Design the sequence.
C-alpha cells in the first residue's frame, strides 16, 4: 500500500517536472524568437541607411561630417554581437540619424523630394518597429526571468541550467532629449 | 492586464458564453410561445410523452437554433462588417495608405506576428475608427478616409494602437459578437422606422424585434466603459505618446463621427460613438451602466495626466545630464511640436523664439503643472501679448474664444470685424453679416483653395445634416463648445443656414458669430458662386447657374 502511494507521488512529481521544463523551454524559444525579430528590423534599418545617404549626399554637401558619422555608426552597429554592445551601437546610430534628420530640415529641396520623403517614412516606420520589437523582447525577457526565479521553478531551472536573458537597454539619450527622436518621426 | 499579446491569446473569455446563454434563453422563450397553444393537445399523450420530455425537447431545439445562429453570426463577422461598410484594403501605391500599411506592420511587430490583423479603409469623409474580431480568429481595424487624411503620423499610430488593444485584450470579440447577434436588429430598425412625418413609428411587423432591441440595451451593461480607458492606456503603453491620442480624441469630438453612415449596430466597436449622445458625455451610475463609451473630456484628461508622468521621466533624465546648461530655478518648459512630439526643455526666451509656438500649443513644465494649452500659463501668455504688434486702439475688448488672445479690429469688406491674429478666426456681430455677404465680390474674389475647400466642406456637411435629420432631432449635440467671448456662455455650434451648410459658432444672447479660419471666406465663396445643395440627392453639390 505504502509503496503504491510513494509510486503515485513520484509519478506526480515527474509529471510536474516535465510540465515546468516544457513551459520554460517554450518561453525561452519565445524570447529567442523575439530577439530574432529585433535582428530582422535592425537589418532593415542598416539596409535603408546607405540608400538615404546616397540620396541626400548631393544636396547636403556641406554636411559631410554628419553623413560620415551616420556611415561609421552604421558600420559599428552591423559588426556588433552581444545584446549589450548591440544596444549601445544602435543607440549611437539612432543619435547620428536623429542629427541627420534634424539637419535635413534645413534643406527645402530635400523636403519636397518625393524619394527622400518615402525613404524617411520607411525609416520612421523601421524606427517604430525596432522600438516595438524591443518592447516585445523586454516584456518576454521579464516574463521569462520571473518564471525562472519563482519557487519552485528555480529548482528545476538551476538543475537544467537555464540561463537568464539580457534586457535590450532603452536608449538613455533618446529618452533624455526628446529632440533626437522627434525629428525622425512625423511625416 | 496581462503582460504580452501571447498571454492574452491564451485567455478564454467567459462573457462570450453569457451571450450564448442569453441567445439560447431568447429562443427558449420563442419556442415556448409557439408550443404553448399546442399544450392541451399534448396533454392527451402526456402519459407517453410527459411534460419533462416536452421541456427537454424545447430546450434541445432552442439550443440547436441558438447554436446555428451563434455560429453564423460569430464565424464570419469580420468579413460581414467589412462588406457592409464597403471598406477597401489600403492601396500601397498611395502615400497616405502606405503609411497606414507601415503602421500595421509595426503593430504586427508588437503582437509578435502571432495574429494577423487586417486593415481596411472606410470610404467616408467622417472621422472614426473601429475594430472587429470574430470566432474564426480574424481581426480587422477599419479607419475612415476622412480620419486618415486628417491625422499626423503619431496620431494615426495612437489610433491604430488603441484599436489593436481592443483586439488583443479580447473585448473586441465580445463587442463584435454582441453587435452581430443583437445589433443587426438595430440597423433593421433604423431602416424601417418611419421618420417621414417626423414621428418615430415602428413597423408593426418589427414590434417583437423592437422589444428585443430594447432588451439588448441591457447588453450595454456588459460592454463596459472601462474597456475604452483600458485601450487608451494600452495605446499609450505602446506608442508612449498620450498627447497624440488626446489630440485625436479632441479632433474627433469636434467633427462628424459618421452617424448614419456607420450603422448604430456598429457603434460599440468605434473609438468614439458615432452618435454624439448626451448619455455618453454624462457620468454617474446610470450612464456607466447603459453607455458604451466614456465621456471624451474625461478620456482626454486621463491621457494628459499620463503625459504628465511621461514628462517628469524626461525631466529627471534631462537634469541628470551635465551638459545641460539649464540654471536651476529657472522654469523649464516642454512644448508639443506641430509634429506631435514633445520638445524641450526650453527656457522662456527659447520658447519665445520657437516659430511654431501658438496659444494652442500644449505646454507643461514637467513638475506640478498639468499639461495645458500655452495661453493658460501667464508667463507664456506674455509672449503672445508681446507678439501681437498692432495699434493699441485697434485692440478690441473681446478675446478669441479658441486662443483667448485679444482680438484685433480690422476692416473686412468695408466693415469692422474682430480678427484673431493667432488662429485666423473672425468674430462678427450678427447685424454685420448681411453687409459682408452683400458686398461679397467687391474687394476680394474667392481663391482656388477656398473654392475647393468650400465644396468639400459643403458636401460633407450636407451628408451630416441629412443624417442628423434622420436620426433623433431631440438629442442635443454635446460637442465641447467654445464659450462666448462676451457672456462666457457656451456658444451654439450650428450651420449658417439651411442652404449654406458651413458650421459656425453662434451666441444668440450677445448676437455674435465666430467663424473659424477660412469659414467666413468659404461662406462668401458659396454665395458668390451660387453653390447650393442639391435637394434631390444628399451629398451632391451642384452649381445653380450651370
Sequence:
Amino acid at each position: 500500500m505504502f509503496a503504491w502511494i510513494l509510486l503515485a507521488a513520484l509519478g506526480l512529481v515527474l509529471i510536474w517536472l516535465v510540465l515546468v521544463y516544457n513551459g520554460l523551454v517554450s518561453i525561452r524559444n519565445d524570447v529567442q524568437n523575439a530577439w530574432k525579430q529585433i535582428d530582422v528590423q535592425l537589418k532593415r534599418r542598416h539596409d535603408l541607411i546607405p540608400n538615404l545617404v546616397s540620396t541626400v549626399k548631393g544636396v547636403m554637401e556641406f554636411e559631410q561630417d554628419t553623413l560620415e558619422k551616420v556611415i561609421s555608426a552604421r558600420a559599428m552597429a552591423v559588426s556588433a554581437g552581444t545584446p549589450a554592445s548591440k544596444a549601445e551601437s544602435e543607440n549611437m546610430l539612432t543619435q547620428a540619424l536623429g542629427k541627420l534628420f534634424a539637419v535635413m530640415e534645413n534643406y527645402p529641396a530635400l523636403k519636397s523630394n518625393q524619394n527622400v520623403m518615402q525613404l524617411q517614412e520607411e525609416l520612421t516606420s523601421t524606427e517604430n518597429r525596432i522600438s516595438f520589437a524591443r518592447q516585445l523582447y523586454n516584456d518576454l525577457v521579464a516574463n521569462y526571468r520571473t518564471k525562472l526565479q519563482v519557487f519552485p521553478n528555480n529548482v528545476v531551472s538551476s538543475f537544467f541550467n537555464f540561463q537568464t536573458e539580457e534586457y535590450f537597454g532603452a536608449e538613455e539619450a533618446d529618452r533624455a532629449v526628446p529632440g533626437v527622436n522627434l525629428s525622425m518621426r512625423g511625416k | 492586464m496581462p503582460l504580452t499579446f501571447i498571454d492574452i491569446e491564451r485567455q478564454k473569455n467567459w462573457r462570450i458564453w453569457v451571450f450564448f446563454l442569453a441567445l439560447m434563453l431568447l429562443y427558449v422563450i420563442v419556442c415556448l410561445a409557439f408550443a404553448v397553444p399546442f399544450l392541451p393537445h399534448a396533454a392527451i399523450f402526456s402519459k407517453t410523452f410527459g411534460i419533462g420530455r416536452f421541456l427537454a425537447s424545447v430546450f434541445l431545439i432552442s439550443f440547436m437554433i441558438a447554436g446555428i445562429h451563434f455560429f453564423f453570426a460569430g464565424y464570419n463577422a469580420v468579413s460581414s462588417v467589412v462588406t457592409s461598410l464597403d471598406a477597401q484594403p489600403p492601396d500601397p501605391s498611395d502615400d497616405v495608405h502606405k503609411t497606414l500599411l507601415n503602421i500595421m506592420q509595426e503593430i504586427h511587430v508588437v503582437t509578435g506576428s502571432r495574429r494577423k490583423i487586417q486593415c481596411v479603409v472606410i470610404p467616408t469623409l467622417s472621422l472614426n475608427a473601429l475594430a472587429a474580431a470574430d470566432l474564426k480568429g480574424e481581426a480587422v481595424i477599419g479607419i475612415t478616409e476622412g480620419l486618415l487624411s486628417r491625422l499626423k503620423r503619431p496620431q494615426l499610430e495612437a489610433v491604430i494602437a488603441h484599436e489593436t488593444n481592443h483586439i488583443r485584450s479580447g473585448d473586441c470579440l465580445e463587442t463584435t459578437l454582441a453587435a452581430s447577434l443583437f445589433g443587426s436588429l438595430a440597423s433593421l430598425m433604423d431602416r424601417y422606422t418611419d421618420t417621414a412625418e417626423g414621428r418615430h413609428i415602428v413597423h408593426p411587423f418589427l414590434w417583437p424585434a423592437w422589444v428585443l432591441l430594447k432588451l439588448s440595451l441591457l447588453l450595454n451593461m456588459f460592454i463596459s466603459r472601462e474597456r475604452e480607458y483600458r485601450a487608451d492606456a494600452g495605446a499609450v503603453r505602446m506608442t508612449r505618446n498620450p498627447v497624440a491620442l488626446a489630440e485625436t480624441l479632441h479632433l474627433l469630438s469636434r467633427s462628424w463621427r459618421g452617424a448614419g453612415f456607420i450603422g448604430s449596430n456598429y457603434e460599440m466597436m468605434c473609438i468614439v460613438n458615432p452618435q454624439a449622445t448626451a448619455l455618453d458625455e454624462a457620468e454617474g451610475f446610470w450612464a456607466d451602466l447603459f453607455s458604451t463609451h466614456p465621456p471624451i473630456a474625461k478620456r482626454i484628461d486621463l491621457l494628459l495626466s499620463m503625459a504628465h508622468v511621461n514628462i517628469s521621466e524626461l525631466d529627471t533624465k534631462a537634469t541628470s545630464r551635465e551638459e545641460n546648461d539649464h540654471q536651476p530655478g529657472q522654469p523649464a518648459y516642454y512644448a508639443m511640436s506641430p509634429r506631435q512630439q514633445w520638445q524641450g526643455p526650453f527656457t522662456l526666451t527659447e520658447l519665445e523664439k520657437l516659430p511654431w509656438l501658438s496659444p494652442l500649443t500644449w505646454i507643461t513644465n514637467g513638475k506640478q503643472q498639468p499639461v495645458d494649452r500655452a495661453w493658460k500659463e501667464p508667463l507664456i501668455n506674455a509672449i503672445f501679448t508681446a507678439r501681437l504688434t498692432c495699434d493699441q486702439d485697434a485692440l478690441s475688448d473681446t478675446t478669441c474664444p479658441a486662443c483667448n488672445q485679444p482680438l484685433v479690429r480690422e476692416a473686412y469688406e468695408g466693415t469692422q470685424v474682430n480678427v484673431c491674429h493667432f488662429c485666423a478666426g473672425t468674430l462678427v456681430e450678427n447685424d454685420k453679416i448681411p453687409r459682408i455677404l452683400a458686398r461679397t465680390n467687391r474687394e476680394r474674389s474667392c481663391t482656388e483653395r477656398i473654392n475647393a475647400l468650400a465644396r468639400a466642406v459643403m458636401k460633407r456637411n450636407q451628408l451630416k445634416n441629412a443624417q442628423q435629420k434622420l436620426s433623433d432631432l431631440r438629442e442635443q449635440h454635446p460637442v465641447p463648445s467654445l464659450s462666448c467671448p462676451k457672456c462666457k456662455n457656451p456658444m451654439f455650434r450650428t450651420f449658417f443656414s439651411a442652404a449654406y451648410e458651413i458650421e459656425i459658432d453662434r451666441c444668440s444672447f450677445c448676437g455674435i458669430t465666430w467663424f473659424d479660419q477660412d469659414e467666413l471666406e468659404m461662406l462668401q465663396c458659396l454665395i458668390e458662386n451660387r453653390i447650393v445643395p442639391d435637394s434631390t440627392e444628399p451629398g451632391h453639390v451642384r452649381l445653380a447657374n450651370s
Remarks:
- Chain B touches chain A through 36 residues (CB under 8 Å).
